[in-house]
Amino acid sequence: MPRIPVPAGIMTKIFILDDNALPQLPGVLNELWPGRTPWIVADGNTWRVAGEKVFNILTEAGLTPAESLILPAVPKPHPDYELACKMAEMIQENFVPVAVGSGVINDLVKTAAGIKNVGYCCVPTAPSVDGYTSKGSAMSVYGSKKTVPCPAPMAVVADKEVLFTAPAEMAAAGYADLAAKIVAGADWIIADILKQDPIVPATWDVVQKDLHAWLADANDLMAVFMGLAATGYAMQMHHDSRPASGSEHLFSHVWEMEGLLFNGEEVSHGFKVSVGTVVTLKLMQYFLDLDVEKAKELAAAPQTWEERDQEVNELLKLECYGDAPAAFAKEKFLAPADALKRREAIYAVWTELQEKVKAQLGNQQALVDSLKKANCPIQPEEIGLGREQFIHGIFTAQLIRKRYNILELLFDTGLLKTAVETMF
Question: Could you please report the per-residue DSSP string of 269-281?
Fold first, then answer.
């Protein structure tokens, strides 16, 4: 099977998705990194399903891999920046890192390669995330969930036999991550109309043009993985995760920083995003149901900084979020007079916002039903969230980024608390 074309001008040069892709790996490494020594990174599970085979294939091809780094399968590796720094120290001058695994392994290797300023190759083992082909990695940096700048893989070699026989819940997580692009697109529309973050048509189209086709059948893993890969390309092109990430990912980040567990197991990124997508839909529906006069009537008075600071401190009292959220809250704060000006600017385009958000979301119930049919969680309790933690997470998510979205819109119009009380 010929290589699948990738957009021009991005870091990823080779993308192979084939029934027999792993044996093509030596040729890819020789083409992009001639003379370099492969260094395989996996965990106990991904070594078993693909890593050992990759090692043997490279050895038989005469590439002689260095001693592999095999992280424990239990407990599962975490996307921890300090671990990535230790891995970077292991990358010798002649190494080419080869990440064999799913999202966490890829993010760790990507970050380590970025620290060391070397290219790397990705061998994905499950259709579970969009981060395989993205630039930057979602890491825990001294307690805060951050996107760490680092290079995308120069090559992705995905073997269908490995990829599509992964556990069913990993495929469901990938479907949820892809479905989230619908609400992420609505968030970007809001930011665009309010002149906070303009839509770039080229990157918008890479994600949104074929999105519904990719999502048509959760069992069509080829289509889902192609959609996830395309989303990563868009993030490379945009030099930012905006094309792929909205409010739904902020909820996921909050719950991850809080160490959310369900039945003693860490909840996957995709499953947290799935619940976050449904939360975002409900908040957007609240906005869509309000006419502008009713919005003005329900709006809470703008806060003073003293009031806001007290509220922020209460939201962050668990002290598991790092220093960034408090700093972002202060940066985003508008004095009452400026807050009222912001509201007037929003009221002026209220109808346009509603029309374009509604058009982007389409049939919301159909989206929820598709998640449910794909065995993705849609209720907080399905991922171990009690009511108090769930509600707290909605307000805390508004703090952890500066990116404009439905949370910011509702906060700026003094409607966020009322929306949460009404919808949840």
Answer: HHHHHHHHHHHHH
